């Protein structure tokens, strides 16, 4: 108890330094713990399920590079290494009717084994689906869509009036999961058979994943019509599903992690933790320097090294405890900032939070005690007693700590500034096609659901589609608001599909390309530039006929595939074209190359421009569900209002939806925006922590030189002579830190850009700005202390000293 009281009194005696130390450590810990909790959450996705480390899904891999979850007819579930398996079907857009409310829902169709392998806690009712009409909903769907009203025993219908009964509500799993269904239905519903199920398998303990994938890794034809395209299956551990880089990222039923984003956050957490640790040790050694006489006298009177270590450790533990309390306060206050601005959502994990707090409270003081302990136990007692009475106390070690903080701070600022520059470069780069004032608007919804319908309903649906198509086409043609329009279902930036092509014949080797279909009006709307040959001609070219084996390629495809003469050479697709249905035995002939267009980028600019192959499309004949149109910028509001009215006239519905090409482009770079916001925020925090350490050192350093300043002023020194004397040391530290930090920053940015195909130029001005910002803020922090010291009354100083 006496030791505790002594430690508290010692810290309170130097309140200013203690407050600076606690605040700096608390801010650093808040940053580190926020990121650590998020990384822990991302690394424990799906860990809520028993035997998660023994559960595998079946992944299908097509030779063109496309990957998906499946397993139907793969035979992998029959392997002796499989202990148990379940099959579920996912549907992401099932339209259901709750009274007068229509809801588009994410549904899993499951068998009786699913909840045994993936148990969900039952909140009310039951999760045992016995009849085809039984449904289990999730807590989030119950609260967000059904407003938490009593639902067990309640019913709803699908688009055709089929009745379903809610038999239970299940809670969210204890950890984040890869999938996010809103309800579970029976697998006995016939129409779910139209969808390919996904297999989840519980493996026997100690299974050899590598050996099993080698055993089942044989390439087989994708289907009975495939001429060249092959397919293989492999086991994908559930623990690896979240970060699997091959699966489609746009599937609304699943969510995937970003390993690059985690790496960025890990680097930020390390830097922030290191800055905070150095700042803590630096300020605490200032406190120890003020107490050197105290420790010297203790050693004279026989205090051993163990006693000194315990006292320093207890004091550090108190400081860590106060900082931890302030840290958790900051975390609670800034929770919504981190979620909304930085998208670092964290689900509370009490066990992890307690473990992290224990490490900070008991483990951190061990690290921060080592340097002060060694520093003050190695010096002789007489030196410790004498050091406080002299004006030339060595601050070299503290300047080294401050210099390292400056190095890290300049590093973070430099990286942050470059990320801003790179993002601006990508957002304003010329992508090779029109990226403004284009809208994609929904014009039709199919009211038929998954379930079987009568022949009469299907005929009626065909008539409704024809009426809608004619009405929308007529209204769009009559309007003067649009420069171009077509019945495309998506915006060009939405991508396409991956397929393989070979020059002339398969023996020449297949190369991956991005494939899409376009009309001539689509190409004109986006301003695609012809380099060689011709564009599509509606009077000559046809879709889905024997005359459809024609393509237009970009410059990259011409170079990668080795095309020399487009008038003589053809491209052999690996997969059969839709028009092959018109050919005997789904014959897959080579495609004529009718034109070459200038390269354009529809993917993130970190990726290289891909070879692109474009088939002919006829949206006037087939287009139905959406309209894509280009307009004048000043007409945007009128265009949206016109399309909304047209949608209501054509469908009788008011749930109009549209997408602007600017929004699609912004979404593509959302991760980059988050990285910029993260580095910008934490660069500011790093500066704050470093300035707190600088302030503590300046307070101590200037207080030790008051007598020297007084004597200089007595001998005629002016304030302009005192300023350089006191600032020289800090400017020297900053200069050396800049010389170290700039090459490190340049190296880190260069390594980061190795995976980027399109890069912003790395110029010296970026590093100059980082150094100037750090220097300016540091000078402002020190100047008010220097100003006070330079204008002090020398008589009072000499009298007091």
Automatic annotation (TrEMBL):
The organism's taxonomic lineage, starting at the top: Bacteria, Pseudomonadati, Bacteroidota, Bacteroidia, Bacteroidales
The keyword Membrane is annotated on this UniProt entry: yes
GO MF annotation list: transmembrane transporter activity
GO cellular component: plasma membrane
Pfam families: FtsX (PF02687), MacB_PCD (PF12704)
Topology in the lipid bilayer: Multi-pass membrane protein
Ranges of residues in domain MacB-like periplasmic core: 18-189
Transmembrane segments: 20-39, 261-287, 308-331, 351-374, 399-420, 678-702, 730-753, 765-784
Compartments it resides in: Cell membrane
Organism: Mediterranea massiliensis
Name of the protein: ABC transporter permease
InterPro entries: ABC3_permease_C, MacB_PCD, Macrolide_Exporter_MacB
Keywords: Cell membrane, Membrane, Transmembrane, Transmembrane helix
PANTHER family in the record: ABC-TYPE MACROLIDE FAMILY EXPORT SYSTEM PERMEASE COMPONENT 2, MEMBRANE COMPONENT OF TRANSPORTER-RELATED
Signal keyword on record: no
Domain ABC3 transporter permease C-terminal positions: 268-379, 681-794
